[in-house]
Amino acid sequence: MNKAVTYSMENDIAIVMIDSPPVNAVDQSVRAGLKQVFTELREKSGINAIVLGCAGKTFVAGADIKEFNTGIAAPGYHEVLRLIEDSPVPVIAAVHGTALGAGTEIALACHYRVAHEGARFGLPELSLGIIPGAGGTQRLPRVVPLDVALDMTLSGKPLPAAKAAEAGLADAVVGGEVVPAAVAFARTLVTKGAGPRRTREQAVKGAEQATELFAAKRAQIAKTMRNRQSPIALISALEAAVTQPFDQGLQVEGKLSGQLEQATEAKALRHLFYAEREVRKIPGLAADIAPRPVARVGIVGAGTMGGGIAMCCVNAGIPVTLVDAVQQNLDRGMATIRKNYERSVARGSLQPEQLEERIKLIIPSLDFAALADADLIIEAVFENFALKKEIFAKLDAVAKPGAILGTNTSTLDIDLIAAVTRRPQDVIGLHFFSPANVMQLLEIVQAGKTAPDVVVTALEFAKRIKKTGVVAKVCYGFIGNRMMDPYAREAEHCLLEGATPEQVDGALEQWGMAMGIIAVFDMAGVDIGHLTRAERKHLLPKDPGFYRPTAMLTERGWLGQKTGRGYYRYDGAERKRTPDPEVVALLHEEGRRLNIEQRKPSAQEIQERCLYAMINEGALLLEEGITLRASDIDVVYTAGYGFPRYRGGPMFYADTVGLKAVYDKIIEFQKMLDPQYWQPAPLLKKLALAGSSFAQWQAEQSR
Ligand SMILES: NC(=O)c1ccc[n+]([C@@H]2O[C@H](COP(=O)([O-])OP(=O)(O)OC[C@H]3O[C@@H](n4cnc5c(N)ncnc54)[C@H](O)[C@@H]3O)[C@@H](O)[C@H]2O)c1
């Protein structure tokens, strides 16, 4: 007897239950179980309806992703779903939790759907670079209007029960237990003499608007989902639902699915799916190390970062003590937090009472003694070494024994900060990204003496506040900013060689970066990087062109969006970036003055220079042991730096280009450009010449 799928009888109604913990994902055993049970029920007499529900906390929440690698073992989805749909008596899906992917496709193959009020229906396949492949693209628009089907599949966002009912996806929404409610619904159908309502026999809803809808969505994809294959394939599959009979439509869906599954886009997105799980595994840390309890967080500095970090904590229900040295700054910090929440209330994503609850969880204070009961204290004061040392000495004096002392520094040496305390084992880097309440990434920086359970606590804390925590070791810029440095260096240099900011940003955005680096500088403040470099001047290359544009703009007070002009101009209420011919002329003139060859780099050259410089630095980080895995770098970049997920992250991308090709290009740049910047990392060279890849190297390391 198959354990994943069983049935019981309630008089003339069969109740089929899928029970495959933790989330009832469909694998071979679930398909085989469904096949067995539905075949048996067909033969059985005295059955007037079938309810299909799930045990545990959710309806089927997807397909087993491992089958991508192994292939789908028989019985296949179509066979099983057809069997359900062909049932001679009505089949009612009883949906609770989240029906995702194959879950929604199973529900669509049922004749009716009863949803718990908290249930959601989603087809998020595009996030894995594929399209629904179990008939979802053909059945969904036969159940909900075509525009809803398009929005649901393109956004991947699950539809809540109430909206699903509005769209026709749920026939009833109920509170309480969903299976008994579905049984009651089934009884009504039986009484009414209603038979099966097979989705494949329905007409597509809203087909008359199909031409306009598809055109509009194709235009939207070209704009917002650049370089991606799966959304285009999705439209083609939905189009087949409109223009072709069901069975042919299924064939179109199948062919497109097969092509997508093997494409780089899907491989990249699957890579990230696994990489994001892998980041939590830290080799050398015993699995039984318990995290320290974190019941209250202290934050020092109520500025941009401190305020955002406070929001992350209280959003997760963790009370915060927020300390600043200046009353005015503390007040401003609290006011900003309130303003941010008010915006969420205005958008409807937060209830007014939740706003008050969250604010109440923050105790503002000017007194460091207020931090005495905090389990974790995060310092986010100005980026100044003397100040940070002073703060850590104070924290050492007031924090309770065992409290974790975190610093949000972006550039300073955490070992040296830890050394001013009597408890360096409790000190760790917690590098948030701005805006901290929004950005997904948290770099967890393990200093030389950081205790293992402090790292485990930081990872656990990241999870609690819904961040992706990635562990790094101490070095200048950790993982993210260190790799950003050569990437941006090349972008800046291109400006001195005769490229314009629009050309540089355009090339990077065309390639897929969420925002070109020059525009990023304008957004973050042109002076930020410049001031950090000024502090480290003695360590930087003796090259007058090195980051010269930021220096020139900072000297002029053209600091970016905050001053209305930087590399671009930001006029008007919208603050839209527009080219600034004065800046372009200034930088080109400077390039000539410095005798920099005016080569006017092409888009491809800009992309290769920026990205390969970044990848080369990533290889150095791997060699130096700053990062544990190439895939961790990919997580850092996709979660924190607007790197396109569909390219898998910089190291995965390098593998798709081929390390030999990347290496050869670096050697070409070495001859063509300033050789001091184009020294291939030894690891990159070794792997390139051996015909290997970062993925292969990583697999060998973990063996
Ligand atoms: N802004 C970013 O994009 C960003 C991103 C990542 C990390 N960081 C790092 O986060 C830290 C804070 O940056 P920020 O942008 O939030 O700075 P900020 O200038 O917005 O805020 C700093 C706050 O610290 C307070 N402060 C200064 N001295 C203090 C003291 N002795 N005791 C208590 N409070 C004191 C100030 O009053 C101010 O409110 C820096 O180390 C920075 O490098 C910033």
CATH superfamily label of the largest domain? 2-enoyl-CoA Hydratase, Chain A, domain 1
Strand order within the widest sheet? 12-11-10-13-14-15-16-17
Q: State which percent range the strand residues make up.
A: 5-15%
Radius of gyration: 28 Å
Q: Give me the CATH architecture of the largest domain, please.
A: Alpha-Beta Complex
| Mean pLDDT level | 96
Structural category is: alpha/beta
N-to-C span? 38 Å
Shape: globular
Described by its quaternary structure, the protein is: single chain
Q: Uncertain spans, ≥5 residues at pLDDT below 50? A: none
Provide the helix percentage.
40-55%
Outline the biggest β-sheet.
Answer: 8 strands, mixed
CATH class of the largest domain: Alpha Beta
CATH topology of the largest domain: 2-enoyl-CoA Hydratase, Chain A, domain 1
User: Domains counted in the coordinates: how many?
Assistant: 3
Total strands: the figure is 19
What binds here, in terms of ligands, is: nicotinamide-adenine-dinucleotide
Number of helices: 30
Report on this model:
The structure is a single chain. With 703 residues, the protein is α/β, with parallel strands linked by helices. Helix content is 50%, strand content 12%. The protein has three domains: 5-261, 2-enoyl-CoA Hydratase, Chain A, domain 1; 297-474, NAD(P)-binding Rossmann-like Domain (Rossmann fold, 3-Layer(aba) Sandwich); 482-701, N-(1-d-carboxylethyl)-l-norvaline Dehydrogenase, domain 2, CATH 1.10.1040. It has 30 helices and 19 strands. The chain has an eight-stranded mixed sheet with strand order 12-11-10-13-14-15-16-17, with helices on both faces. Strand 16 (441-446), helix 18 and strand 17 (468-473) form a beta-alpha-beta unit. The longest helix is centred in the last third of the chain and has 22 residues, at 603-624. The two termini are 38 Å apart. It binds nicotinamide-adenine-dinucleotide (NAD). Nicotinamide-adenine-dinucleotide (NAD) binds at residues 300-306, 323-326, 329, 380-383, 387, 391, 408-410, 432-434, 524. The site of nicotinamide-adenine-dinucleotide has 25 residues, from helix 13 and helix 16.
